[in-house]
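>> received
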Amino acid sequence: IRLRRRNRLCYNRRTSMRTVVLVLFYILVVVACLPFILFCMLAGLREPLIAVGLWAMRVSRRVLRIEVRTSGLEGLEPGTPRIFMPNHLSFLDGPMVMTLIPGVARVILKKSVLRIPIVGLGMRFVGFVPVDRKGAEGGKGASPGRPPSCGRGATPT
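>> returned
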C-alpha cells in the first residue's frame, strides 16, 4: 500500500513491516524445508513441493491481509486443462492466482526468477516453464504448445 503525503510517495509502515516479516518467514521456511525439498527431488515427488508452496502463498495472503474475491470457480471441473493469465498489477498476482486454481497448476514465468537459490531449483523441478523475455523473439521458443512438464490434468498459469 502506498500513501501520498505532500506530493511525495511514501510507504505505509505497517505494510512495510508485514513485508519484512513475510520475507523472514520465507527464508525460515526454505531453510527448514531444505531436507524435505532434497528428499522430494531425490524421490521424484512433485506434488508435496507444490503443496508447501501453496501453503506459503496462503500464509502470505493472511500476513499481508490481502482479500481475494473470486467468481466463476464453481463452473471449473478439476483436471480439465486451462490457461489462467493474471494481469500482474503487482508481484503477488501470479502466486495468489495459484492458490485459487482447483487442481494442479504449472507456471510460465520469467527465466530470471529461477535464479533464486533453492526456490528456483524447486520451481524448475515441479515443472514451471521459464521464458527468456529478452528481445522480441524471446518468449516464442518457450513452449510451442502444452509445456512438456504439464502432465495430464496440469494447468499452465
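>> The first strand starts at residue 2 and ends at 5.
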